[in-house]
């Protein structure tokens, strides 16, 4: 059985206490490899390596850091098929999605920030000839980067790339459920010429490995993507020492559909926004709201489309949805389905575990599920499910849809579907979320701010905002007279 190792100071090393965790395949439920159950001692080693590497890496010219990060991107591209297969096996996402979405984006993250640091300009001001001010932007130190299981390399590279581009060194703690591509990244970093200790990867559980990383006084910056409950814990753990903190957390995102849409045209996009990656994307629209004139027709057409979506082996190109990532997440999603039924929800598509042949019968599969007639006070509408379970309700006026969408502890994103752009502008302005898509979904420009309001996060990353976050800004004022 393959045993993954930590990547510390440019070398693969076994966990010091010699303990491992089992990784189970979401497709079969069987063990596929072991990963280190890293403890505080492993994290300390990684932090020491990052601290030792900091001076040289931060002193390197931006053009040199950029050149190395571009090489990382090139190697990810070259190894994209192998990485995509590893990602698909770990998460249960389809191989096609890993090839089309995850790997190109992981490479782009490195390329984007390799380029961004070459273009960054800083402010200078003249105080009527008496003095001038200029701004220096400097790396923060060792960054602690903690990422979730749904888009493993995509989200980890969204943190590593800007952190390294800005001259920081890093210690990463990927999800214990999906460690393989982070493990392979070590080889890529070495081949690209990333110096020893600049990027360290410690595998294992959130507690102890992640929580120790957050608390360590030698780590002044934490970037975390994951669930809101974990984000709250991290915020408390990071408070002593007043660390720089970015939290990208959960969502319960509304999909608002106005009566003027072309139903048949948008159905595939709505189904994709609901169920891509098994509904395990923080931005998935899990709460569909349809204007009442077209509600019944929309439900019928969407349910028919969803019923035809193929669930099965993620390696099969015909499959749209693979299994849910882990038994824990599977049980949570099935539990939410039971609550929906008790709360009076009417299942109009899915809601059943598909019968699949052979080894797939041990996997964590669920048909994509649409639920009608659940009131907004049902727990289902207030809690992030993070799986292929979506509700669909009607509204009469746009302001009711906005009220329904905003009546949530979360505020990550929403999408609005209409031919009336004036109406779209008004709804977009009224929604209390970090991103609103109009007649599209998951279209991401890496230059624009990304993050959530309310319980969906703290701070924004993307473009200049990532560079702001991963650097300290210093103002120098010089008297001239
Ligand atoms: P979790 O919050 O469970 O875990 C995220 C990461 O934090 C994992 O690496 C986990 O370790 C680690 N962790 C857990 N406990 C601690 C702790 N006490 N201290 C430090 N680290 C800890 O999230 P999931 O992995 O289940 O991911 C799903 C969640 O992520 C959803 O809520 C989703 O909405 C959110 N998400 C948000 C995004 C955004 O951009 N806003 C994007 C993608 C996902 P381990 O699991 O290995 O034990």
Describe this structure in words.
A 7-stranded mixed beta sheet has the order 14-15-16-13-12-18-19, with helices on both faces. It has a 6-stranded mixed beta sheet with strand order 9-8-7-10-11-21, with helices on both faces. Strands 5-6-22 form a 3-stranded antiparallel beta sheet. Helix 2 (62-78) packs antiparallel against helix 4, helix 2 packs across helix 6 (180-192) and helix 3 (80-91) crosses helix 4 (95-119). It has 15 helices and 22 strands. It is globular. The longest helix has 25 residues, at 95-119. It folds into 2 domains: 6-249 and 456-479, 3-Layer(aba) Sandwich (Aldehyde Dehydrogenase, Chain A, domain 1), CATH 3.40.605; 253-445, Aldehyde Dehydrogenase, Chain A, domain 2. It has helices spanning 40-59, 62-78, 80-91, 95-119, 152-165, 180-192, 206-215, 228-238, 263-275, 295-307, 327-342, 379-382, 398-406, 421-430, 463-469; strands spanning 6-8, 11-13, 20-24, 31-36, 124-127, 131-139, 142-146, 169-173, 199-201, 221-225, 244-248, 253-257, 285-291, 346-349, 369-372, 389-395, 410-411, 413-417, 435-438, 453-454, 457-458, 471-479. The protein is 40% helix and 22% strand. It is an alpha/beta fold and 481 residues long. Helix 12 (379-382) links the parallel strand 15 and strand 16 (389-395). It binds NADPH dihydro-nicotinamide-adenine-dinucleotide phosphate. NADPH dihydro-nicotinamide-adenine-dinucleotide phosphate (NDP) binds at residues 146-150, 155, 173-177, 205-207, 210-211, 214, 225-227, 230, 233-234, 248-251, 282, 384, 386, 412, 452, 457.
